[in-house]
Amino acid sequence: MIQKIYIMDRSGKELSLAKKKLYRDQQMRPVLNELRQWIDSELQQGVEPKRAYGKALSYPKIQWPKLIRILDFPQICSILLHTH
């Protein structure tokens, strides 16, 4: 799913900021929503938060508001986010 988001972002990199925002909203938002649903579903199944898998799922949930900023700010490049 994450790879799909990066591929989508690369596909829209030549668009103007306004078109990139629309593109991300139409193409990436559903994928990010699906990712969030999957994370929530996994966590609801009783994953232990102290174990590696639980930590891996909890981190994006906690950071979710920051993660989805890419949808509202087309000048943010997901490739840059990926390298930090």
Report on this model:
- The chain has 84 residues and is mainly α.
- The protein has 6 helices and no strands.
- The chain has helices spanning 2-11, 17-44, 52-62, 64-67, 69-72, 78-83.
- Helix 1 packs antiparallel against helix 2 and helix 2 (17-44) runs antiparallel to helix 3 (52-62).
- The model has no long low-confidence stretch (mean pLDDT 86).
Shape: elongated
Estimated radius of gyration: 14 Å
Query: How would you classify the helix and strand content by structural class?
Result: mainly alpha
Ends distance? 19 Å
Q: What integer is the average pLDDT?
A: 86
Helix content: over 70%
Name the poorly predicted regions: none
Count the strands? Answer: 0
> Can you summarize the main beta sheet?
none
Number of helices: 6
Question: What is the H/E string?
Answer: HHHHHH
Descriptors for this entry?
single chain; 84 residues; mainly alpha; 6 helices
Question: Short summary of the structure?
Answer:
The chain has six helices and no strands. It has 84 residues and is an all-alpha fold. Helix 2 (17-44) runs antiparallel to helix 3.
Write the layout of secondary structure elements.
Blueprint: H1 2-11, H2 17-44, H3 52-62, H4 64-67, H5 69-72, H6 78-83
Helix pairs in contact: 1-2, 2-3
